[in-house]
UniProtKB/TrEMBL annotation:
Protein's organism: Litorilituus sediminis
GO biological process: protein folding
Keyword terms of this UniProt record: Chaperone, Coiled coil, Cytoplasm, Stress response
Protein name (database record): Protein GrpE
SUPFAM superfamilies, per the entry: Coiled-coil domain of nucleotide exchange factor GrpE, Head domain of nucleotide exchange factor GrpE
Amino acid sequence: MTTESNEHKSAEELTPEQLAEEIVQQAEEQVEEQHEHAHEIISEEQERINELELALAAAKATVADQKDSVIRAKAEVDNIRRRSAQDVEKAQKFALEKFAGEMLTTVDNLERALQSIDKEDESNKAVVEGIELTLQGLISSLEKFAIKAIDPQDQPFNPDQHQAMSMQEVPGVAPNTVIAVMQKGYELNGRLIRPAMVMVSKAPSVDASA
C-alpha cells in the first residue's frame, strides 16, 4: 500500500483503543515538533542576547576607558596649572629676593654712614639729614614689598632669626639675650631672607676654686 490509507488503517477499522493510541501518538509528534521549533527559537534568542550582552560590556568598557582618560587628562591639566602657578610664584619670590638683597646692601651702607659721621658737627647737618631721608625712603619702599627689618636688641636670642657672632658675660643681663646687633636681619612676607648678626650674653662662668 502506497497511500496513507494503505499505511494506516481507516478510523472505521481501528478499535477505540487503537484510535486513541494513534491520536496520542500524533499529538506527541506535534508537541515534539513544536518543542524542537521552540528550542531553535530560544537558542537564536539566547545567542542574540549573548551578542547584545557582549556589545553592552564592550560599550561599558569603552565608556570606562574614556572616563579614565578624561579624569587623567583633567588631573594632568590641574597639575600643569599648579606647577605653572608655583613656577610663577617662585619666579616672583626669587626676583623680589634678589631685589631685596640689592637694596639691603644700600640700607647697610647708609646705616654705617650715619654711625660713622660726626652728627655734632654742624657742617655735617645737611649731609646727615640727606642720608636719613634717603634711608627712611628706602626702608618705606622695602616695607611696601613686605620686607621688614629684624632688630632684636635686648631680646631673647632666637636661632631661627639670629646668627650669634660672639658671646659675652654681662653682669645683670640674663643669659641668651641679644646685647648688640652688628647687622640687622630681614624677612620677606614672614620668611627669613637674612638673619640678624648679633652678640649674645652668656651665663657667668662658675669659679672652680670657690
